[in-house]
Amino acid sequence: MLIRIRDLQLQRLEFNEAFQPGAIDLGADTKQVAPLHTSGKAELIEENRGHKEILDDIRLVGKLETEVEVACARCLEPVRQPLSREFELLYRPQGADKTKQDAAVSKGETEISYYEGDGLLLEDVLREQVLLAVPYRVLCQENCKGLCPTCARNLNTGACDCKEAPPDPRWNALGTLGEKLKK
Ligand SMILES: [Zn+2]
Ligand SMILES: [Zn+2]
Fold it and tell me: Pfam families from the xrefs (predicted)?
């Protein structure tokens, strides 16, 4: 769904949409497993920039809800993760900010991004917001045992036959040194 500057010049836009899994490309690591519901509004903000320069900014406020599947950080099994996120974003035309000072112009805490051409694709916004909402580290269970470092068996499904790694003799040497130093 394209949010067009031309349309926003006439009136602000309210949206209430559902995107089925697959409609938004989330990349290889995150799989959408339930419809994504989003609602909010978009409006045009005319930003005065110095002499006669007016930027057509798009202000987007809304929320999303969906469910994704990501790999457990320890055992790599898929884990379902419900997500919900509220967002308040400001999009300036691509190229509007040539320097860091420009980008910092008086917009407080609002995140600033950029749109290209005649509008902003809602799907692009949602992709970014969904990925930001996924926790950095997801575990299938709090005490997930992970994979055996030797044979890669999932240790949640049972122990493997690998023996524990033999102690590294260098550590023994250090241990002896430590004993000597204590004396
Ligand atoms: Zn796990
Ligand atoms: Zn093993």
Answer: YceD
